[in-house]
Amino acid sequence: MHYPRARQTLMSLAVASACAAAAAPVYAQEATAAAAAATQPEVQSVVVTGLRQSLASSMNLKRNSDGIVDGIVAEDIGKFPDTNLAESLQRISGVSIDRSIGEGSKITVRGVGPDFNLVLLNGRQMPTSNLGDLNGRAFDFANLASEAISQIQVYKTGRAETPTGGIGATVNVMTAKPFDRPGLHASIGAKGVYDTSNDNLPRDIQASNSLTPEVSGIYSNTFANNTFGVALTGSYQERNLGYNTAAVSNGWKGPYQGNAGPLYAQQNQITNAPAANALYSLPQNLNYNFNGVKRQRTNAQLTLQYKPVDTLVTTLDYTYSENKIQTKRNDISAWFNFGPSASNWTGGSPSSPLSWTEFVTGSDIAMGAADFATKTQNKSLGFNAVWKPTNTLRFELDTHHSTAESGADSPFGSSNTLGTASFSRGTTTVDFSKDFPVLSIQGADFVKAGQQVTGSVFTNSYMKGQVDQTQVKGAWKVLEASELRFGATYSKVENRSAFSNQQRDTWGGATKPSDYPSSVWHQDSIGQYFNKISGSNNAALFNQFYTFNFAQVRQLASDVSGQPALYLPKSTFDNDARTGEKSNAAYVQFNTDWDTKLPIHTSVGLRYEKTDVVSTALVPAATGISWVSQNEFPITFGSPTFTTLTGAYHHLLPSFDSDIDLTPDQKLRFSLGETIGRPRYDQIQGGQTLNSLVRTDGGTGSQGNPALKPVKSKNLDLSYEWYYGKQNFFSAGYFRKNLENYAGQSQIDATPFNLHTPVGGALWNEAISTGGCLTSDTTCIRSYIFANHPTAPGVTPPGVNGNVNGTIVGQPSDPIAHFRITSFSNQKKASLNGLELNWQHMFGNSGFGVSSNYTYVHSGLRYDNNAIGEQFALVGLSNSYNVVGIYEDKKWTARVAYNWRGEFLSSTFDGSGPNPQYVEPYGQVDVSIGWNYNEKLSFQLEGINVTNQIQRVHSRTQQQLESVTQAGPRYMIGARYKF
Description:
Elements: H1 10-18, H2 30-36, H3 51-64, E1 69-73, H4 85-89, E2 95-100, E3 103-109, E4 118-121, E5 124-125, E6 149-155, E7 170-175, E8 185-195, E9 211-223, E10 228-247, E11 252-257, E12 269-271, E13 279-283, E14 285-309, E15 312-335, E16 341-345, E17 353-358, E18 363-390, E19 393-408, E20 415-425, E21 428-431, E22 438-441, E23 452-479, E24 482-504, E25 522-524, E26 545-547, H5 550-561, E27 575-594, E28 600-627, E29 633-663, E30 666-677, H6 681-684, E31 688-690, E32 693-694, E33 699-703, E34 711-722, E35 729-750, H7 762-769, H8 778-788, E36 795-796, E37 807-809, E38 819-842, E39 848-858, E40 880-888, E41 892-901, E42 904-907, E43 917-919, E44 922-932, E45 937-944, E46 951-954, E47 961-966, E48 970-978
Parallel strand pairs: 4-7, 12-16, 33-38
Antiparallel strand pairs: 1-6, 2-3, 4-5, 6-7, 8-9, 8-48, 9-10, 10-14, 10-47, 11-13, 14-15, 15-18, 16-17, 17-21, 18-19, 18-20, 19-23, 20-23, 21-22, 23-24, 24-27, 25-26, 27-28, 28-29, 28-37, 29-30, 29-32, 30-34, 31-33, 34-35, 35-38, 36-37, 38-39, 39-40, 40-41, 41-44, 42-43, 43-46, 44-45, 45-48, ...
Helix pairs in contact: 1-2, 7-8
């Protein structure tokens, strides 16, 4: 069925703009305004009551839009096709998602990462807050439930009337409003959520039940002859889950060239040694961690609409969301010191260890635990008024105050680690030949070398984003088939991110085994928790570790130490970065239809944007370096101080959109434009921050640059669309983005605060020259100093414990420590291009259908695995495809969806330094089945990740594992009743 666009009248443009999903985000209220104008023709719309109708409405969103737009429309009020908005967005071509705790959280669009995609709520810019990505701009969709969402619009081309910030896309999340569907509409739903991943956890961190509740409801009604309306939605969900990860959590040391580096520092046993011209890297550590998570998500929205006269519609709305997450973790790890070793290597370059063995005696088998909680709240209060004084003139005022705030929700902080160890580790080997890294340990004896608390870290993090924004917009019919749109915006965006660490650096032993009754340690095995990962059943696996109750052992350690404050987070922040951005914008846009042989619609616009940046940061001043264990040199910090830096930029952003009706069912689109994406907050924060731990080769830190300019993208889009049925279409599109002003992340060598380090000092050199210690054998060097110079300045010998846990403080005669400081500057350019294919087909009246898409993205700026040092490469770049099978009749609705994302670069730095992290290809199957008992009552069954896929990340080669994670499927069964 063909839905023609009326031509040659300005009214046609107004009507097209008012269609559900036809308008730009700034005209999200247009449908309401159109309904208020009695003289307007009836808006051509689809009343969405089923899945097939939902697909038809989504198709018309794409068809009737200016520029290239995709989206998803709810099949019924209060019912969205996925339990998470990010998981819905991944069904759209060009959109890929990043997952957290088994759910979609952030989006990458057309190869452009999460920080450069702008999220709007009803046309309003939303603040961001995410402790997992402190200082980022990426919006976390996991905070928003789907029940109150009526549709999502993804604008892939920029226009003058669209707010700036989205290079990949601008995503407009639209909520249900009473005037959109007059009359009474209400429903209530309940689900039971069963997450199988909770069953695959150690008992100390496992939730008591894997079945949790979810309830939701929506009420919408209009009164007084549809002049007043109210809509109230709410939802609450609990979820208990788990995931287990094997990781080289502190990254790979290197890379090193050929015959250089620690592999050749002594006579090691090397099989198939890396070639002289090959790069190689060494693992810093290996860690198995087991994580139990409880999540409670609450969403609510109240919307009031009032139409005092036919020409004026006002809307007042308040949106609230809260996401509370509690995490418990146990882990076991082994750290490598690059002493005498044996290894077996892959060929080629980069070369990677298939196995790595270190010959050690009495080292630590480290086992830790964590127990922390976080809470994120989003609040948005907004007012909108649409006034149409005449048939040719329209004005709109929209203003809102929105906040996003995240922080600790536990007396133990927003993150923590309580370390324990048995000092009985002998020769240690890691086998990297399979997907699962196999750790083998000889000589372990938990009886002779009992477990004891070592070091600890209690972190208190906080982040708050705030947006105050006022938009004034207008539209004027100036010719029969033309419209002039204009507007101005004032935005004040503030971001605050702060944290402090209460860190006890006694990793060589803080107490003694006898301080803890044996009953607090609970023996468990490792392999059972990774049974879906290849290699986890290896007989060589050191398949023993101990879990413990974090709160119980923390209290024991606190009592023994006599310093309880060391085992709680600080109540103040040592690092506090505050950034404010004030932006003024104005735009003009001219839309017109051309009555040519092939009907043409064009839109030409220009947007001016000016932004002032003020960034203030509180950072601690470093005063010294202490050597506290084999390879850890924590910094001693003094009182923090504030510093302030400023910056400013302005841009003139043109745009042009055109579409041509080749036939009533076929369309060509062409778009040109410029868009900007603002830098991350950590890139523009003031002050210099040093990371607290220094190693033998120096320390690390970061420094922002508030004068950074935004990334600018010059965009070209071409698209062909064929609508060959009421619910059938095919489209093919090409896009190209030329990006400039990327902030290159580079490292400079610096000596901040002139801190002295024991490494290379007189006592260090004497231990090597006189004591016969190797440079890499830090245990030997420490032991020599304690034995021969126990009273030297800065030397505090070990206590009664007997482990090498004393301290050696850098003295004025020692060398000054060097730090690799990461900073940012506008120095990078990039280009990417790609193809998008969409096909949606319903097979007549059979009830069956298919919706599919494929996205190909390419850029020459890829990471060079055979290069040393900092590199610039586009993160998030990947191909993807979706296939969704559909069946629907009067009683049944079924959907089977497969989403696949190819390998992509997620970061250019790992825990060690400038090393890439590649997320390996991942495909997931989701299933949903619905049964309508009658017109009011329906039942649903849903399954997420039903094939229980694992996620794996590697560095320069597949053998250079960064992490591999096993979670599990989750299932939901529920019912919904409509009033």
